Amino acid sequence: MSKKQSWFWPVQISCWLLIGFLNWIAQYSSGSFSNVNLYLNLAGMCAGGFAVTSLYRAYFRRYKATIEINATRLVAFLFASAFVQAALWLVILIIMMLPFLGNKPLSIMPILFQIVPLMGIMLAWDSVYLGYYLVRRYHSTEVEKWKLEAEVRQAQLGTLRAQINPHFLFNSLNNIRALILEDPSLARQTLTRFSEIFRHALQHTDGREINLAEEVDILKQYLELVKIQYEDKLTYHINVDDACLADSIPPMVLQLLVENAIKHGIALQNNGGEIRVNISRNSNKLILMVTNTGTLAINNRLEDSLGIGLNNIKERLRLLYGNNATLNVTEESPYVNVTITIIK
Fold it and tell me: Which of these, 90, 229, 290, 294, could form a disulfide with 265 (CB 3.0-4.6 Å)?
């Protein structure tokens, strides 16, 4: 039993001993009960109440009953459960009395009337227990939400470090410096692209999702910058289904996939290679596929070492979509495919 639940049994036992004792005092003061009935009722109140409420709690724990925070359903559930418990409690009292009746007939109607006060006690007990349960459930939900927010923040910080890739930063600045003398017009265009990518990375670090059309536009600018370094060694094609442009995806995911494709594919090929980005929709599935020239045999570090890569993306997908998103890596020689599927 966890520490959060250790309160239950001491409170449960104390509660029913107190109720039984108070009932005994009330009956003793009335002077209309024999000693046998006094102690029999004391035992019945304590044992019966303890039994039915313990069974109620066991049912809750066994079936993980979900109570909607809706006034009508909550009140109906309280009254229904209190009635069932009171009836069961009454059966326990009758069974305990039978051995002491002797030849006396059992008066059913007076006993049945006792279901009203028993139901009142059950309503009180159930209200307190359910109140505590709902408060604790709310607290647990809040704690999980805080944990999720912390994990998302941690992933976002890692993503920011990934987005501002030092090698990409230095290479871009060096390329711009060289272009200033060779082609000032292209240097200005390149500097504009670089500033847009940098601004985009900083602006959307805290966002969970971003419009796909904007992501594709930034990806094109990123590839144009990289192409300055690789020149003819890099060719790329981007194919986007128009039906997907209004969708949203985690920010910078496409760029991170392409960075991995270049670092672990194109950069390792003597003659360079090709990057293909295909984005499509199949029913309720958004499919993002990045294909690059290369092999998994060469890229066996792909799953292990990418602080800016797949492990980071997988974690972000898990935090945002749970089981509704997957990332798969396959090889179709001479290409490697990385596919993200998001169910929306």
Answer: 294
pTM exceeding the 0.85 threshold for the entire prediction: no
Q: What is the dihedral of CA 128, 131, 136, 137, to 10 degrees?
A: 140
Alpha-carbon distance of 314 to 326, in angstroms, equals 8
CA 29 vs. chain centroid, Å, equals 57
Pure H helices in the chain:
8-30, 35-63, 71-97, 108-113, 115-163, 166-182, 184-203, 212-230, 253-264, 310-321
Residues 6+ apart with CB under 8 A from 96: 40, 43, 44, 47, 48
* CA pseudo-torsion sign 178, 182, 188, 192: negative
DSSP 295: -
Task: Print pLDDT tens along the chain (344 aa).
Answer: 344 456 778 888 888 889 888 888 887 888 777 777 788 888 888 888 898 988 888 887 776 555 555 677 778 888 888 898 888 888 888 888 777 666 666 666 666 777 888 888 888 888 888 878 777 777 777 777 777 766 666 655 555 555 555 556 677 778 788 778 788 888 888 888 888 887 777 776 556 788 999 999 989 988 988 888 888 899 999 999 998 988 999 888 898 899 888 888 888 888 889 999 999 999 899 999 999 998 876 544 444 444 346 777 887 788 788 889 999 999 998 899 999 999 98
Give the up-direction half-sphere exposure of residue 269: CA atoms within 13 A in the CB hemisphere: 23
Largest distance between two CA atoms of the chain:
117
Would you tell me how many other CB atoms lie within 10 Å of the CB of residue 117?
Answer: 11
DSSP 8-state secondary structure symbol assigned to residue 286: E
What's the gap between Cα 258 and its chain centre? 28
